[in-house]
């Protein structure tokens, strides 16, 4: 475990390294990020076995995750070269405006030291070298990561690999333990915090931030039930097989796991889903704590069977490991489900879900409007018109809307939004995946009538860096 003195040293060293890193030209930072991506791929043979020993996720999954993590570093190298994240704006003086307008120029700048809390379920892509870390480093912020207790050795090894590729290893600090996390959040030099974890954990971090003399932004990804709406024109067999695969992927330990499925009463959708889930197997969960949480969640649903209107639709098998868990799917009618809210709409992290049967899709918007915010919402249909009346509710409910697909799997790209209303995230306007996640670690500064020689290069009239800018109201590329 990391003591308070060591946390303080890590943050102070990161702050000192960050001052030099911010002054490094964007093109040079981009090359460094590409070098980190290359280093992760080069050391894959060391990284994946260490992660497998701690998480049981397997070679194929972990190799893929390392490749994804390396791709995130390459993406943010592209973001830096593009320059649009700086949001550079120039308004030249206009004495005839009302009121008269001075020369005003605005550009984004990095906040400072960013504290990052690793996730349990992605030991690479949402951990020490994950999206929070790379987006912060890209913009010029040093990072101090609180390692997840589920994969401490993987965290240490990943940090060592990344540091080898950085111009200053102090740009990436790493601390371990619950107390270290609290000290990190409270440190006066930490300017923002990124978090991926449970609602309870996110609330605890928010309380610590609220107690700081100077509050800071908190970007938390917390919990999501990711509802799926199946409409009558969908294919029952395709829905059932796709749902069972998505539900049990990684033993259900994805923030985008489909935990709630609305299906028509007619068409045999619930029977097809039950048969598909019964054919699945569970497995070992990432940590004993996560396993206990899953069992509590399933127990909560079990308690509502019978008189509570809920029934067990299907159970898979537990798998071969002694502490493996079993996939469980429950079913109920739309009226009973609505009467059981909000409890029936809560996430059960793991391979568990509730199937809700409805007689008429016209009754769905009223129920969807009562659900907690989610990262995703999915529609399955072959007739687009069937979904038209659902769109307003779905747009309010989730940050990513999926058509005839499944939510497990988040593309790392420019357009991705991995966020949503509470409790999916603490700040639904921001994403933790994709190019625009960089905006979390930026703050704008406006320069009024500032001497040209003291302006940042991005705001000089000759635009020496060639960044896209809005000049006198017009976008200039």
Automatic annotation (TrEMBL):
Domain of life: Bacteria
Keyword Oxidoreductase: yes
The keyword Oxidoreductase is annotated on this UniProt entry: yes
Keywords: Oxidoreductase
Pfam families: Aldedh (PF00171)
CDD domains in the cross-refs: ALDH_KGSADH
Domain Aldehyde dehydrogenase: 4-413
Name used for this protein in its record: Aldehyde dehydrogenase
Organism field: Microbispora corallina
Lineage: Bacteria, Bacillati, Actinomycetota, Actinomycetes, Streptosporangiales
